[in-house]
């Protein structure tokens, strides 16, 4: 796993988190407990500190980079979709940032907000809690409904489970040359407590 010290500052990764071996973690990065960092993610703490709080997930191909001399903070249970770019901003707890969205310098996304896929959040933007944020440039559309927030929370809980699955069973292997007879299918069993929330 490419973990790089820079200027004498070494990343911190909680032992109960999972960082994919192809992700790059550089410099002043602090990753909390039960965090998932997916393949090809790049988290560069080479200009300012990056803090990823407990229970967050950073999916495949995301880029997280700091603004000079400022902290970039992802609050607890942040859910950062595939290919998103998070740059020098604050994402408050329990937010969802959609696939390929961009959140720019010094923006603040209030807790329990949802940013739509491909949305572009301009620098210095401020959004209150439970905002539904869509478009390019992104704008407040309405408040997040209770069922939408519950849907987001179920998705984040699945990534909490994925941390454990990866720690226990993810292994680099040589591929099979032929499909096995009666090959099992990937089956993701949603935990009982997760089902009960729905």
Automatic annotation (TrEMBL):
Keywords (alphabetical) are: Transferase
Pfam families in the cross-refs: Hexapep
Q: What terms describe the molecular function in GO for this protein?
A: transferase activity
Full protein name: Transferase hexapeptide repeat family protein
Q: Which InterPro entries match?
A: Hexapep, Transf_Hexapept/Carb_Anhydrase, Trimer_LpxA-like_sf
In the UniProt record, does the keyword Coiled coil occur? Answer: no
This protein's species is: Photobacterium rosenbergii
Q: Does the keyword Transmembrane apply?
A: no
Protein origin, superkingdom: Bacteria
SUPFAM superfamilies to which the protein is assigned, alphabetical: Trimeric LpxA-like enzymes (SSF51161)
Organism taxonomic ancestry: Bacteria, Pseudomonadati, Pseudomonadota, Gammaproteobacteria, Vibrionales
């Amino acid at each position: 796993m490419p973990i790089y010290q820079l200027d004498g500052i070494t990343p911190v990764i909680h032992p109960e988190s999972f960082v994919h071996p192809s992700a790059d973690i550089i410099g002043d990065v602090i990753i909390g407990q039960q965090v998932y960092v997916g393949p090809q993610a790049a988290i560069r703490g080479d200009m300012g500190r990056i803090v990823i709080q407990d229970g967050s997930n950073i999916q495949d191909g995301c880029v997280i980079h700091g603004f000079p001399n400022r902290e970039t903070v992802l609050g607890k249970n942040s859910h950062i979709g595939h290919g998103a770019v998070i740059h020098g901003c604050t994402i408050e707890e329990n937010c969802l940032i959609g696939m390929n969205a961009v959140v720019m310098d010094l923006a603040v996304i209030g807790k329990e907000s949802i940013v739509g896929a491909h949305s572009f959040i301009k620098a210095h933007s401020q959004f209150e809690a439970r905002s539904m944020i869509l478009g390019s440039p992104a704008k407040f559309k309405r408040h997040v409904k209770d069922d939408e927030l519950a849907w987001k929370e179920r998705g984040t809980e699945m990534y909490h489970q994925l941390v454990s699955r990866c720690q226990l069973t993810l292994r680099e292997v040589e591929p099979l040359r032929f499909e096995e007879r009666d090959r099992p299918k990937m089956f993701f069993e949603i935990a009982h407590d997760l089902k009960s929330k729905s």
